[in-house]
Amino acid sequence: MSAHDIHAGHGDHHEEHDDLHVTSGDYIKGFILAVILTVIPFWLVMADVIQNRTTVVMVLGLFAVVQVVVHMVYFLHMNGKIQGGWTMMSTIFAIVFVIITLAGTLWVMFHMNANMMPAHKDIPALSQPAAPVAAPVAPAAQEAVAPEAVQEQAAPAAPAEHSGHAK
Amino acid sequence: MSNTSIQAGQREYHPAHEPHPENGTSLGFWLYLMSDCLIFAALFATWGVLGRSYAGGPTGAELFSLELVAINTAFLLLSSLTFGLAMLQKQKKNVNGTLGWLAVTGLLGLAFVGVEVYEFMHIYHTGATIQTSAFLSSFFTLVGTHGLHVSFGLIWLVVLMVQIKQKGLIHANVRRLNCLSMFWHFLDVVWIGVFTFVYLMGVL
C-alpha cells in the first residue's frame, strides 16, 4: 500500500474535495434503467412468460447483475478514478470474495448431497440386514433426507449430531 | 506530523492540514460496506443451499405475495431516487431542499419496513415460523437482516436530519450525508439480490 498515493495532495485540501459532483441526469438515467430492469423480471415471473425453469433462472440472474451494475454506476457513482482507484480495488476484491463464497458454498454443498452414501436400496450388501428397520423410513424420506437417514442406520455408532439435522 | 509536534504545547488542531488521506472517510465507509457485502454473501449462500428444504412445510410459492414484493421494490427504488435528489439539493447548498427530500426518502423507507413487517406477520400467522423449516430459517434471516439494515438506516437518517437542521450543511454533515447516501444505495443493491433470488426464483 503506497501511502504516497493517498497522502498526495493533502496540502491543497479544501472542503469541496469531499464532494463528488453529481448531476440530476445520472439519477434520472439510473432510475429509468433500474425501473426497466426491475419491471421485466417481475413481469416474466408473474405473467409466467417462460415455461423452462432453467431459462427463467438464467434470465433473472442476468437482469439482476445488469441492474447491480446500473446502481453502482449511476447511484453509487463508481468509476476507476475515485480515491485513486482504491474504491474500485476494494470492490473488485469484494466481488471476487462474494463469487467464491456463493459458488464455493453451492458447489460443495450440492456435491456433498451427491456424494453421500447412496440410499440402501442401491447397495445390495446393505439392504439385506437393514431392510426390516429401514423399510418404513424409505417411503417417507424425501430426496435429500434419504441418504442421511440411511447412513445413521448403517452406522449406529455415528455421532448424535446427525439426528437433529435430518429434518 | 512534524507540524503538530512543534505546537504540542498549545493543543492546537488544524483539521484542514492534518495528514489524513483525501476523502478517508468515504473510502473507509466503502470498505465497511464491502464487508457488509460479505455478510450478505454468506446469507445468500445459506439461502442457496437451504432455500428449497421445506421439510414438508409451506413453500415459497404458497407464502410469497409478489404484488407485495413489487410494491416494496418500488418504495426502495423510489427512495434511492429521492435520496439522489437530496444529494443534488445538498450540492446546491439548499438546506431546506435537502431536508425535504431526506424526509421523503425516510417516509419511503418507513413504508418499505412497514410492508415488510406486515408480510412477516402475515407469514407468521399462517403458522410458518422461523423454526418450521430450513427454507423459512434462511428466508427470515436473509430478508430480516436486510430489513434491519434499512431500519438502522432510517434511524441514522432521522438523526442526520436533526443535525442538518441544527448546524446546516457544514463539512461534517456533508461527509455524513455522503456516507448515508452510499449506505442507502447499497441497501437497494442488496434488495435487487433479495427480490431476484429469494422472491422471484422462490416462487418458481
Can you give me a brief rundown of this structure?
The complex is a heterodimer of chains A (167) and B (204). Chain A is 63% helix and 0% strand.
Keywords summarizing the entry:
heterodimer; A: 167 residues; mainly alpha; 3 domains; flat; disordered N terminus; B: 204 residues; Four Helix Bundle (Hemerythrin (Met), subunit A); 78% helix; elongated; transmembrane helix (chain A); transport (chain A); transmembrane (chain A); Cyt_o_ubiqinol_oxidase_su4 (chain A); electron transport (chain A)
Write the layout of secondary structure elements.
The complex is a heterodimer of chains A (167) and B (204).
Chain A: H1 3-7, H2 24-46, H3 53-75, H4 86-115, H5 124-134, H6 137-140, H7 145-154
Helix pairs in contact in A: 2-3
Chain B: H1 2-6, H2 24-50, H3 60-63, H4 66-91, H5 95-125, H6 134-167, H7 171-202
Helix pairs in contact in B: 2-6, 2-7, 4-5, 4-7, 5-6, 6-7
Protein name (chain B): Cytochrome bo(3) ubiquinol oxidase subunit 3
Keywords (chain B): Cell membrane, Electron transport, Membrane, Oxidoreductase, Transmembrane, Transmembrane helix, Transport
Region (Disordered) (chain B): 1-20
3D architecture notes:
The complex is a heterodimer of chains A (about 170) and B (about 200). Chain A is an all-alpha fold. Chain A has 3 domains: about 60 residues; about 35 residues; about 45 residues, no CATH class. Chain A is built from 7 helices and no strands. In chain A, helix 2 runs antiparallel to helix 3. By secondary structure, chain B is an all-alpha fold. Chain B has a single domain, classed as Cytochrome c oxidase, subunit III, four-helix bundle (Four Helix Bundle (Hemerythrin (Met), subunit A)), CATH 1.20.120.80. Chain B contains 7 helices and no strands. In chain B, helix 4 packs antiparallel against helix 7 and helix 6 packs antiparallel against helix 7. Chain B starts with a helix and ends with a helix. The relative contact order of chain B is 0.15. Chains A and B meet through helix 2, helix 3 and helix 4 of A and helix 2, helix 4 and helix 7 of B. Chain B: It comes from Comamonas avium. Chain B: Pfam families: COX3. Chain B: Keywords: Cell membrane, Electron transport, Membrane, Oxidoreductase, Transmembrane, Transmembrane helix, Transport.
